[in-house]
């Protein structure tokens, strides 16, 4: 299928599909006329990429994890399980830091007489 059809079937813009290809996440072949064509499983690959991005993974990690995904869903073969756990630990650390920052800011706002900060 051509890039326009892939964009239509996935709801992902052509520029973003090209970016995925530049990052090595999506593979295309070129016709003699220079047009990109994608395999029939490309919509599934794009859905997987989108899900991994929504989970907060950088494209570098997605490129390493993507070959480990099996089936039609998001069943990840254990080949990159530790890497995913490390990503999760990093995310947990960033969330804890954000909570601390929010508490500090809430205390500053309360000290300004601006009333109670919104509940989280």
Automatic annotation (TrEMBL):
<feature type="domain" description="HTH merR-type">
    <location>
        <begin position="1"/>
        <end position="68"/>
    </location>
</feature>
<dbReference type="InterPro" id="IPR047057">
    <property type="entry name" value="MerR_fam"/>
</dbReference>
<dbReference type="Pfam" id="PF13411">
    <property type="entry name" value="MerR_1"/>
</dbReference>
<protein>
    <submittedName>
        <fullName>MerR family transcriptional regulator</fullName>
    </submittedName>
</protein>
<keyword id="KW-0805">Transcription regulation</keyword>
<keyword id="KW-0238">DNA-binding</keyword>
<keyword id="KW-0678">Repressor</keyword>
<keyword id="KW-0804">Transcription</keyword>
<dbReference type="InterPro" id="IPR009061">
    <property type="entry name" value="DNA-bd_dom_put_sf"/>
</dbReference>
<dbReference type="InterPro" id="IPR000551">
    <property type="entry name" value="MerR-type_HTH_dom"/>
</dbReference>
């Amino acid at each position: 299928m051509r890039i326009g059809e892939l964009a239509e079937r996935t709801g992902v813009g052509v520029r973003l599909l090209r970016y995925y290809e530049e990052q090595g996440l999506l593979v295309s072949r070129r016709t003699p006329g220079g047009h990109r064509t994608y395999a029939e499983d490309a919509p599934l690959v794009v859905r997987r990429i989108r899900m991994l991005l929504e989970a907060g993974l950088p494209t570098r990690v997605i490129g390493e994890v993507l070959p480990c995904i099996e089936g039609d869903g998001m069943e990840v073969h254990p080949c990159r399980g530790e890497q995913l756990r490390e990503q999760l630990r990093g995310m947990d650390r960033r969330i804890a830091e954000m909570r601390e920052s929010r508490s500090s800011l809430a205390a500053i706002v309360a000290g300004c007489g601006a009333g109670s900060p919104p509940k989280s």
